[in-house]
Structure formats: C-alpha cells, structure tokens
Design a protein that fits this description.
Helices cover 34% and strands 15% of the residues. It is α/β, with parallel strands linked by helices. The chain has one domain: TIM Barrel. Strands 1-2-3-4 form a 4-stranded parallel beta sheet. Helix 1 packs across helix 2 and helix 2 packs parallel to helix 3. This is Luciferase-like domain-containing protein. GO terms for molecular function: oxidoreductase activity, acting on paired donors, with incorporation or reduction of molecular oxygen. Residues 22-130 form the Luciferase-like domain. Pfam families: Bac_luciferase (PF00296).
Length: 142
C-alpha cells in the first residue's frame, strides 16, 4: 500500500509497518522527576511516534499512583494535540465510574473540534480508585 494512501484503519499517517502501530503512554514519573517532566517527555514521545509513522498515541487513565501522571486523559490529549500535527490521539480507557458521562462526551467533542479527525475515545468501567475519597460536600464543610 503506498504511504500516501488512506484507508479506514491506517488513516493518512505515513508508515511502513504491515499493521498500524500505536503507543500507549501512562505518563510515568521517573525517580527524581516531576509530573511536569513526565508531560514534557510525553510530548517528545508523541512527536517521535508521529515522525516515525505510528498510527495512534494512547493515553491511559490512572489515579492515586505517585509514579503516573495520567489522571486526566482529556487534558493531556489537548496538550499533545497542540504539539503534534497528524497522529491520532486517544484515551486508552476513560473510566466512566470516575466521571459523569456527559462531561466526558463534551470534553471529547471539544477535543475533536480542536483536532478534527484525530481524537479517539476509549471507555472503561473499572472500579473507582481504592484510595479514600472525601465526598464533594466534605471539602466545603471541612
């Protein structure tokens, strides 16, 4: 298949792999590093993946893990969309028990408007994180 040809699976991103290749990023925070460092590294990896013809860059959602900075896939994807041009960007599972479905639909609709044809929404239903959470009203009452 010529590199410039488009099809339903591969889109228009050039590459030579016989199957579309993707990257899954947990936005890991290495020892002695910060979440800001991890996000900068994710931009670098996304740009490299795009330049090498990868089809998609997935961002996983994880909470309550000090070594992972991917608790907000929509925000990370907006940042990646601003720093890439062609690669498809997706959530490797927004966990619906953690979010109102309407909010997710609106966030990803906005992302699609910002980066037309490049945004993919992956959904999951894993249980909510095990770390204790205060009810929303607890923050207001002390």
């Amino acid at each position: 298949m010529p590199a410039a040809a488009a099809d339903e699976i591969r889109g228009t991103t050039p590459g030579t792999a016989p199957v579309p290749l993707s990257v899954l990023d947990l936005v890991t925070v290495g020892a002695g590093r910060t979440a800001s460092d991890a996000l900068r590294t994710s931009v670098d990896i996304a740009r490299l993946a795009e330049s090498r013809g990868f089809h998609r860059y997935w961002v996983a959602e994880h909470h309550s893990m000090p070594g992972v900075a991917s608790s907000s896939p929509a925000v990370i994807l907006a940042h990646l969309a601003a720093h890439t041009e062609r690669i498809r960007l997706g959530s490797g599972g927004v966990m619906l028990p953690n979010h109102a479905p309407l909010v997710i639909a609106e966030q990803f609709g906005t992302l699609e408007a910002m980066a037309p044809g490049r945004i993919d929404l992956g959904l999951g239903r894993a249980p909510a994180p095990t770390a204790p959470r205060r009810p929303p009203c607890a923050a207001a009452t002390g």
